[in-house]
Every structure is written in C-alpha cells, then in structure tokens.
Amino acid sequence: MTAPALLPLSGRRIPPLSLGPPSFPHHRATLRLSEKFILLLILSAFITLCFGAFFFLPDSSKHKRFDLGLEDVLIPHVDAGKGAKNPGVFLIHGPDEHRHREEEERLRNKIRADHEKALEEAKEKLRKSREEIRAEIQTEKNKVVQEMKTKENKPLPPVAVPNLVGISGGDPEDTEIKKKRDKIKEMMKHAWDNYRTYGWGHNELRPIAKKGHSTNIFGSSLMGATIVDALDTLYIMGLHDEFLDGQRWIEDNLDFSVNSEVSVFEVNIRFIGGLLAAYYLSGEEVRKMKSGVGRNWGWASAGSSILAEFGTLHMEFVHLSYLTGDLVYYKKVMHIRKLLQKMDRPNGLYPNYLNPRTGRWGQYHTSVGGLGDSFYEYLLKAWLMSDKTDHEARRMYDDAIEAIEKHLVKKSRGGLVFIGEWKNGHLEKKMGHLACFAGGMFALGADGSRKDKAGHYLELGAEIARTCHESYDRTALKLGPESFKFDGAVEAVAVRQAEKYYILRPEVIETYWYLWRFTHDPRYRQWGWEAALAIEKYCRVSGGFSGVKDVYSSTPTHDDVQQSFFLAETLKYLYLLFSGDDLLPLDHWVFNTEAHPLPVLHLANTTLSGNPAVR
Ligand code: DMJ
C-alpha cells in the first residue's frame, strides 16, 4: 500500500509537540483537531479525577501509604525488592498492621464522605435547569481555554516516538487470501459509505431506517463515535480519502462541550483509544495539554463501580502521560491498581462490583465476560505495552488467570472447554460472546507465563476458540449468540430468547486472529471467513450492516443498528486475519479493548524526567 504524502509513514519523527497554548485565531470559530484532542485530554482528566476522587483514590497528600512515589518513573519496576529505588508498592504490605487498619478505616470514611458529597452535588445539579448546567460547564471550559491561551508559548522538545513498525502493508502473497482481504475492505467501504450518507456525525447508523442512531453510552449528542472508532481501520486498509474525510469532520465538528452523561469506559476505549491510534498511525500533531485542570463535574459523579470500567483505563492513560509528559494520568490508574491489589479476593478472583459507599466488593459475581473482561485484558496489555517491564501487571495477570482457570474454566460433557460465571455462590455454566475474547488473551499471554506454561495457555486459547466457533456453527445463521449454555444435553447453545441475538460483535473473530498469528493454523482463517460470509449474507442490507435478533431463525430479523465497534474491531480483525504478520506486528503494537493499536513503549528503565527526549 502506498500512502499519500499527507500521511507520514513509519521511520519519521513526529513533529515537536507544543507545550504552549494552541492558537485560537479570531477568524476561526471551530477548533482544530489538535485542539479538540486537547479538549479530549481535558475531558479524560475530568473523568479520571471525578471517578477517582469519589470512589477510589485517596488524597495522596494526606494518605502517604498509597503514595507511589513514582513522580519520575513512567513504568515501575516493582519486582526490584531489596534496595529498590521505588518502595511504593511495598508500603501497603508494611509491618505496622494496626496503623494500616486505622488508615484503612480513615480511607473508607473518606470514601463514604466523598460519596455523600458527590451525591449532594449531583442532586444539586439535578435541581438546576439544563441551561444553568450548560452555562456552568461552558464557564469551566472557558476558564481552561483561557488558561491555555495565556500560558507561555514554549515548544516542547520532541517526544521519543515509539518505534512505529508495520503501519501499512501486510499484502498477502496468496491470491485467494488477497481476494478475501479485498472483500473485507469492500465490506468496510459499504459500512462507512452508508454511515457517511445517512448517519454522518451521529454516533452510529440505523442501516434500515437509513438515519443516525444514538445510544446513551455516548450521551445524547452527535459525537461521531463511528468516525472516531473507524479512523484507524480506514487507515490500515488504505482508505485514505475516507480517513481524511473523517479527520476533517473531527476538526470541524467534534464538540466535547456537551451537557450529557457518558460512559467513562466507552469514552476511554473508543474516543481516547481511537484518537490516540489515529495519531500514531497518521502522525497528526497533538499539543500538550495544560496540567492541573481537574475539577469535578456533578454529572460525572454517577460513575460506575464496575471492574471492567475502572480497570480499563490503563493503556490509554499511560499513553496520555507519555505524550503530554504529565504523569497525572499514570498516577491515577496506578492508584486504582494499588487499591485493587490490596483488597482481599474471594478464591483469588476479582468480583465485578465494587461498592462505592464502603470501598468493599459488592455482589460476588465474577466473570471474564461482560463487567469483568477487559480488566484482565488490560493487566496483560499493560505488561506488553511497557515492553514487558511492568512485572507487577504481569504478576496480577498470572494470579488472576490461575484463579480463573481453577474456578471458572470447565469442560462440558461433550468436551468443550468454556468459561463460566461465578454468581451467588455457584458456577453458572454459561458463557457470553464477550468472554470469547479470552481465547485470544490466553494466546497473547502465553509467552512469558509462569513455569513454562506457554504451551498450556496457547492450548487453552485454542480450546476457547473451538468452543466459540461451535457456538457459531450450531446456529442457523452461522453467527454466534450473545450468550450460550452448557446444561445437560445443551452445549454452546443459547436457551433464552433474549440471548439469541448477534450485534456484529468482534470477540470470536478477535480470538481467531490472535490464534492465527501465533499458530498459523489455517483453521482460524477458515473460521474467520465463515463468519465474514455469514455477516455478508445475513447482516448486510442496502444501507450498511445490521445486527440480527435471532441467530437460530433462518429468516433473520434485523435490529437496525450498525455498531461503531463493527468498523473499529470486527472488520479490522477480519482484515488482519487475511493480512501478513508484518502489518501491525504484535511485538510492536498492543491493541486496546476496542482494537485500537497503540505502540509498545520501549522505555525499559528510563524515567520520564531522565528520558533524553523528554526533558
Ligand atoms: C467493544 O466495545 C469492546 O470490545 C469492549 O471491550 C467490549 N464490547 C464491545 C464489542 O462487543
């Protein structure tokens, strides 16, 4: 693939980031992409701070016990043990148990008090009219923009750009494989073109009604979620006109000054992850944000306390710290990690709910599917992204998967290996489509696992892939249900009507791709192609692609939603499945949970302040 001159390729240095305020020429009413990126960074700072302040994060100035003392260390070497420079992680295991208990109690009281305060503030906000709330938000934003404008305009020395290997290419030599890859690209074009025609600027598309679609995960406004989510897929497929079109929309229209509740998780994985990946792939300049902009939004205080939500910020936030030179993001996610690490875990498992009032686990429901999934994924990926130096993350991952294997992984009578869910004191023999991503995760984590268990985890990944393939194969449409059971004679089949739908999800294809990369066993390409054909046959409509309500009915009823993750993930993983391994090689790239590739930070033992490129 040849990229147009506008899109710099690997081997180049990204231009210096500017520390100073972005310019806001008087004649221009809209913000540039780089300026919007800054607002996104600010939004992410708000999210972290609101979320952290209310539920998890101690006031580090008062609670030294949780202070990591990592101001100058980007990736900690927590294994260091004796004589380690950074003793932060060991403080929580210190000898003075009594003092620790007291401090723990004090922390719990603080969390309780903060939570009450947050509730009061939220109630107060609800009493205000939309206009008043909007005006308050606008005032806050004006302040931030003003601060940025007045800040000294001092260019930053260039950031050491991670090695951006394999951002194009991957052309298969085999003509049959190439045809398949071209078909996937054509499907992407069909999805994108219809969104462009009928849903432009809306979050998603209704391909049958041929109009925009919005769900409350992005708030009610037109945030163009599909555009941000799809950008990097367009780029790697060589759809550069479409990429530029999306980029222009972001420059001219993406507006974060919305008065609306959004999902922290979704904003992080789709918007922050999507823009970071597009930045790395295309070299679009971003500017450094002003630090210390943390203020609390009342509306954000209704944040969730779901494991996969607060545990799925790490990758994006480490990159934000890396690019901006501001450690605030990194420190916040590390505090979350420390707190989790310190808590007792029933059977070594992390329950999905953490009670914000008490700082204790809520209901003991554990799953590797919805609510829990990406927490485990991000532990492994934190290690990979740190060039395998974040040993603490790896240890937490290894501990977690050992517990998962011991308590949740089972074999059905028919010999299918599945991951159940621990609920109300017993194992539910049910696996969600979401949990199928774990096959890929086990394969990805095999190298580097304990006691030479690499082969074992690769096999486990392959078993999960087989089971998830069965869940597809045992349907009329050859597409997998949302959730399937193992109950007596029932194996890998959905029982309840409400679990029979397929909404263009990627997890099974994601697992095929990882297994393909690690084994080159042709069955994964074959299974991926089966899924692609089924999507083409049953989900394609003239206005795009739609989910289906019942995969067991041979006449599909469409749900009329083209999910943004279909373009971000499903089609990207399919495209990669039929590409050579030189496209986005896994020793240089780590995919966030929305399939946005972020480069490995080869920073072993360097410190942020000591990094020659970031002084
Ligand atoms: C995506 O948004 C992400 O993959 C997330 O981690 C889980 N669910 C959807 C796709 O199914």
TrEMBL record:
<keyword id="KW-0175">Coiled coil</keyword>
<dbReference type="GO" id="GO:0004571">
    <property type="term" value="F:mannosyl-oligosaccharide 1,2-alpha-mannosidase activity"/>
</dbReference>
<feature type="active site" description="Proton donor">
    <location>
        <position position="482"/>
    </location>
</feature>
<keyword id="KW-0106">Calcium</keyword>
<dbReference type="GO" id="GO:0005509">
    <property type="term" value="F:calcium ion binding"/>
</dbReference>
<keyword id="KW-0479">Metal-binding</keyword>
<comment type="pathway">
    <text>Protein modification; protein glycosylation.</text>
</comment>
<dbReference type="GO" id="GO:0005975">
    <property type="term" value="P:carbohydrate metabolic process"/>
</dbReference>
<feature type="region of interest" description="Disordered">
    <location>
        <begin position="154"/>
        <end position="175"/>
    </location>
</feature>
<dbReference type="GO" id="GO:0005783">
    <property type="term" value="C:endoplasmic reticulum"/>
</dbReference>
<feature type="active site" description="Proton donor">
    <location>
        <position position="266"/>
    </location>
</feature>
<comment type="similarity">
    <text>Belongs to the glycosyl hydrolase 47 family.</text>
</comment>
<dbReference type="InterPro" id="IPR001382">
    <property type="entry name" value="Glyco_hydro_47"/>
</dbReference>
<dbReference type="InterPro" id="IPR050749">
    <property type="entry name" value="Glycosyl_Hydrolase_47"/>
</dbReference>
<protein>
    <recommendedName>
        <fullName>alpha-1,2-Mannosidase</fullName>
        <ecNumber>3.2.1.-</ecNumber>
    </recommendedName>
</protein>
<feature type="binding site">
    <location>
        <position position="593"/>
    </location>
    <ligand>
        <name>Ca(2+)</name>
    </ligand>
</feature>
<keyword id="KW-0378">Hydrolase</keyword>
<dbReference type="InterPro" id="IPR012341">
    <property type="entry name" value="6hp_glycosidase-like_sf"/>
</dbReference>
<dbReference type="GO" id="GO:0000139">
    <property type="term" value="C:Golgi membrane"/>
</dbReference>
<feature type="active site">
    <location>
        <position position="507"/>
    </location>
</feature>
<dbReference type="GO" id="GO:0070062">
    <property type="term" value="C:extracellular exosome"/>
</dbReference>
<feature type="active site">
    <location>
        <position position="373"/>
    </location>
</feature>
<dbReference type="InterPro" id="IPR036026">
    <property type="entry name" value="Seven-hairpin_glycosidases"/>
</dbReference>
<feature type="disulfide bond">
    <location>
        <begin position="436"/>
        <end position="468"/>
    </location>
</feature>
<feature type="coiled-coil region">
    <location>
        <begin position="101"/>
        <end position="154"/>
    </location>
</feature>
<keyword id="KW-1015">Disulfide bond</keyword>
<feature type="transmembrane region" description="Helical">
    <location>
        <begin position="37"/>
        <end position="57"/>
    </location>
</feature>
<keyword id="KW-1133">Transmembrane helix</keyword>
<keyword id="KW-0812">Transmembrane</keyword>
<keyword id="KW-0326">Glycosidase</keyword>
<keyword id="KW-0472">Membrane</keyword>
<dbReference type="Pfam" id="PF01532">
    <property type="entry name" value="Glyco_hydro_47"/>
</dbReference>
